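ok so I'm stuck.
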Amino acid sequence: MKLGTRAATEGSAIEAPAAPERRGRRAAAMIVAALILLSAFVAAAPYLSEGLRRGYSLVSGLEGGGTTNGSTVTGGANGGFVTSTNCSSVVSVRPLASPNINGSEAAISYPSDYCALAEYALGQINADRAANGSGPVSLGFNQAAQQHADSMLYYGYFGHYDVQGYKPYMRYSLLGGRGADSETAAYLSYSLPHYTTTSAVEQAIQFLEHSMVYNDVACCNNGHRYNILDPLHNFVSIGVAYNSTRVFPSDEEFENDYIALNFTTTGSSGSNPYYVTMRGTPIPGTPKADSIYIGFDGTPTAQTRSQLDSAPHDYGPGTLVGGVLPPSGVFGGCGQFTSGTTVCADGWTINQSTVNISFSLEPFIRNYGPGVYTVYLITGSSTDSALTTISVFVP
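replied:
not stuck anymore, here's the structure
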């Protein structure tokens, strides 16, 4: 059983159409579009003979989110998100300020025309999904999308990592996400003032959406296209931040959000502070999960703008260090991964009406130490088929 990466690469510059006439003269603006891959996808083989042993070996390098110790957070399956019809009631229009995440909160700043722009972007996404055989996604409101767009504009960098050293699924978890997250990011920049109207930003959204879906081969091996069109996604949270010369209209957190989930990092094991319980209700049609992968990242450290701009513009699911399997047989126990750490779940119930899983992270922490442990509840044979990307920070 193998795990591998689908390469993630930095996007190249894309030549955009010339700026329109303004005040009787043509704006001699230079436009730069940078597209970066949403993530590295990890593929694995299915069960081995008789389903008794599972394992993996890394075949290419992976890099290497978020609940805090003792927390319980509910979200997912529409329960943790507001539908697009309530957009104006959930956004907070205020001047851009430091958007750093503190605990589970951040000062999120939406532009005054956010709702119109988000609905426009959603329409572009769903039109492309329909044209390519995928069902529509709904507009979600996990704040990770807007927080990251704000951060890139405020600090003047571009990348999937941020100034706090967080990766997308870490931000998504810290800000309440309980589904699975895959980020797509892009921006446009002019040398002269250009993004001064909603329609100008909508043109940027349209241009970048088309580029990511139909001109993504040379840039990113169709990674953006794959993410935007992935039929498993059912939500997208959209971040939009801009000033007169730079616009981040396409920080998109695509989500597999199928379970109204309580995720708790304390509980039935008493003194074990990293005992995980996952309880919730799946929506109809939720794919059945049969294993959990655990990804490990070192403790995030602050990054400067120059570090972020010079770093590789990609990210993976962390180093996969083993996983959790359902108990089997009358004597308990479970199958085993051929490498890494295997933990047998204490409880594992997944059906059309219930998800109830319990296990300890302590064996992973004992082997790998402080850092970020991300729980991937897998429906197929890869992290790309996950229903959760929930990160637990271990100091």
